[in-house]
Write a structure and sequence with these properties.
Number of helices of chain A: 18
Structural class of chain A: alpha/beta
Number of strands of chain A: 19
Shape of chain A: elongated
Oligomer: homodimer
Strand order of the largest sheet of chain A: 5-4-3-2-1-14
Chain lengths: 530, 530
């Protein structure tokens, strides 16, 4: 048996040629077939014949497709793109849509060797964006350049491992979303299996924002010992050429928590705007830490010249809030304008007088101010063809501390998936070298300034304790009784959980938030409305 | 063989007793365990020992659960409710959550015979609300009162049919959503299988609104010839006692298209408000057909005394629009108030003067008016503890003809899943006996009245042609090239499809719409944002 194995090994060695791959981590555009195909075509043109070029999942049509996957057009267009790519007679793996019997459609990867289609892997373990695809066959094996190759989707890999097929290289394509709390789970899992299967693994992910979703990149090549040998950056397009027979483990610096969020936010914002053909943003600057952080991300994403800060003080605004807001704009070098809300607020109080007369002031009067501010920002946006940046955070959104059609509005929410404590972390990180966020915005007690001397802590628990409960409840799914067991005060927990529950309907209309986690309110986490 | 069959039939006849069932079509409340359990407990108390009481899917905890199914509390609570029900020593089938190995949870039906658990069916074909449940075993069979019974979820029935098990009665529980375009598909399918399997079928559905979702009821009993013998009403709670050995085919009147929508809307609205502990609504009355229809549904759902109409004319409002709006309120007998937007509009123009100066009037000025109206309605709502009814329709929403944070806002949209042509149909049906909707609101050309002499048709194709294209594209998934083949004008189709695409981001923030169809924008139909 030992001799037989040696002969087989020898044969494999003799028949196997050098295997070169080029991994392409691109930023595709959903349903922009021309953009996606020409990007791939360019890459293939520059490639040698003996290089296997690898592109990610659904590269031809982009993703997420949602209900557009239900239309025939998309299959016709994608097929045409695929045929166009075959003309170049190069070798590649690319994500596309495959047609099955009886109008079934698969999320597929096609393997092309020098212009000839050699294999197809159809996704079996369908994910959140695959709702309109049928269940496919999973990972496929193929002989290429004398090597035993397996290729398919990363979601199908665990099933493949169980089949105990011997491979030299496993190629896994993906459209994996950024998750700020991810502890390299994907790398750890693949590393474990690389060692177990004694195989090299190539992982190819796309990069870029699509709507609220951010794809993180980080494509890599791993050796049989599960060590990373080559890696592409997070959040950046790029490619990497690898001679697979000659790879060595390397160390790669990883981004810190804050920088990951920052760069994800910048990429997400930029793509949200540019893929929707909008270049300009308008943002309300209150002097608080949220708007100060949001404007930094906005300026980085769209360019300083494309973002306008609007200061909208009222009689309840403190002097420091105006100064902090100005400083925030000046530190960043963006243009800002000051527009008082007093005239609109006074006119609205006068208008509402028949209704308000004889009643105690309540949220009605407070919300008028927030809505006047929304009105002003949207008027600027409509006039100059810009979109409004929302500045709310996830803590506020969780407990409904915001005004619908007021500060809850905006074309996109920059911080809506970040708890207040994360916003502070981000602010300090942004300020690591010099003061960009006014230090006072970080240090002072948060306030909505909708009445005299108002503090967030008048209505809410302090953010450090609130956020702990929110993370436990929303992210860790720790229920009421478990929270009490962990030592949180019963009354406090009841109050917070009640606020989360009664504000679900409100969250349905808040500005869509860039998704940084698995529990983003506008894309993931849902509670019953009633 | 013939003799053998006869002997078997004879034996079956001798061993089978009379089987009596009581079908309960209840309106459960999500996570209101006490409400659900006591309702069931009451029903069981009144039942004889030899009656099998049937309740629908997830009756103990309600549905949809969304992410609340991820918390342990819900399983503990539901188990306690289940144990409570066993005490009564009655016989019943009820929907609950079952715990499996390794923390798996199933959407389950438990079969209880005189207080003893006799069987469990766990859902295999998981649906849109089952995302946090594991795949179960499907329909189960059981011997009960000498009869061969099968029980389980309607979604699992087709799989069961393939197993060719002989049954006397099949009991199918469900949480099926209302769909205005449904042509009794469910009854037709079950009727076909009843004949094929020569079995009686009992179908039990829940009723009521949960958030935007409306469950329609229509539980029924079908004989072996696939004929309906007993049936509960759509949209109403109720129960029906059936002696299964003595059922006869009957004719049941069905509601017309308009009445189905009307009653679904009333039920949906009422439950949306009451299950959220809100009793009062405020609605803007423009004199147009949309607000005139929406207010009729609102008044029917909440009571005339609980709805306030607000007329908010501007200098662009025609005299007829004010008169029609008044007439709409007066015909209905609801209170209404008139609040001019002129002061807020003038103040906002003055405020925006530094920005607007020297520019051409555009949507910025128009939207200020819509937003001033939203501000006023929300101020009333905040002051009196009411919620705002949105009055937009699906045609407008599809092409983005509305103002975000203006007329697109509201706690719930009554007509957001109805195309304009459906709104007209509903208006005519409401007026069938006497004029409730002012005839002029139905007859006149629709207008947003945000500038002088504005008509919807200035910006949009006429609604009859627009709606045809929308139904083809959104509901039938007819793509661009197929639309052209069907004879629609290329330029027109391109324009409409472009509008649908570029307004996707806007639809994410529109008031959540009561769901009447499979393509409701806020619950079902999604396009990529970019």
């Amino acid at each position: 048996m030992v001799i037989l194995e040696k002969i087989i090994l020898l044969l494999q060695y003799q028949t196997s040629k050098i295997m070169r791959v080029n991994i392409h981590q691109f930023n595709y555009k959903t349903k922009d077939y021309e953009h996606n195909t020409s990007q791939i075509e360019e890459a293939l043109k520059e490639s040698n014949e003996d290089v296997l070029n690898i592109f990610s999942e659904l590269a031809l049509c982009g993703s997420p497709l949602f209900d557009s996957a239900l239309y025939s057009d998309i299959y016709k267009e994608t097929s045409l793109c695929g045929e166009r790519l075959l003309q170049g007679k190069k070798s590649f793996i690319v994500g596309t849509i495959a047609k099955g019997e009886e109008n079934t459609r698969y999320n597929a990867l096609v393997f092309v060797n020098k212009g000839e289609v050699m294999g197809l892997s159809t996704k079996r373990n369908l994910g959140r964006f695959d709702e309109n695809f049928s269940i496919g066959n999973g990972i496929e094996t193929i002989k290429y350049e004398g090597k035993n190759l397996a290729f398919g989707f990363v979601e199908d890999f665990e099933n493949f491992v169980k089949r105990k097929v011997q491979t030299d290289v496993v190629i896994l394509c993906s459209n994996q979303l950024f998750d700020k709390d991810d502890k390299d789970e994907n790398i750890k899992t693949l590393s474990f299996y690389a060692r177990q299967m004694k195989t090299k693994i190539i992982y190819v992910n796309r990069v870029g924002g699509e709507g609220c979703f951010i794809f993180s990149g980080s494509s890599f090549v791993m050796n049989e010992r599960g060590e990373i040998c080559e890696k592409l950056s997070m959040f950046e397009q790029g490619n990497i050429f690898v001679d697979l027979d000659n790879i060595k483990a390397k160390a790669f610096a990883s981004l810190c928590y804050e920088e990951k969020i920052f760069r994800a936010g910048v990429l997400g914002l930029r793509d949200y705007f540019h893929k929707n053909n909008i270049n300009k943003a308008v943002i309300g600057l209150s002097g608080g830490v949220d708007s100060a952080v949001a404007v930094v991300l906005g300026a980085e994403a769209l360019g300083k010249e494309n973002i306008t800060g609007v200061l909208m003080p009222s009689k309840y605004s403190s002097e420091h809030s105006v100064n902090d807001a100005k400083k925030s704009a000046e530190n960043l070098g963006i243009k800002y304008i000051t527009i008082t809300i007093e005239d609109i607020f006074e006119a609205s109080l006068k208008t509402m007088q028949p209704i308000f007369e004889g009643t105690e002031p309540n949220t009605a009067e407070e919300n008028l101010q927030a809505r006047a501010r929304c009105m002003i920002i949207m008027a600027i946006c409509n006039k100059i063809g810009a979109a409004m940046l929302n500045t709310s955070n996830k803590s506020e959104s969780a407990v409904g501390y915001g005004t619908l059609y007021g500060d809850d509005s905006g074309a996109i929410s920059v911080l809506g998936d970040l708890y207040k404590t994360d916003v502070y972390k981000l602010a300090r990180w942004i300020n690591k070298d010099k003061e960009i966020i006014p230090q006072n915005s970080i240090d002072k007690a948060p306030s909505a300034e909708l009445r005299f001397d108002q503090k967030d802590s008048d209505s809410l628990p302090e953010y450090d304790i609130l956020d702990k409960v929110l993370v436990e409840y929303i992210d860790n799914k720790t229920d009421f009784s478990q929270l009490i067991k962990k030592g949180y005060e019963e009354k406090l927990v009841m109050r917070i959980l009640r606020l989360i529950k009664i504000n679900e309907w409100k969250r349905h209309q808040e500005a869509p938030a860039l998704r940084y986690s698995k529990t983003c309110f506008t894309t993931d986490y849902k509670q019953p409305i009633s």
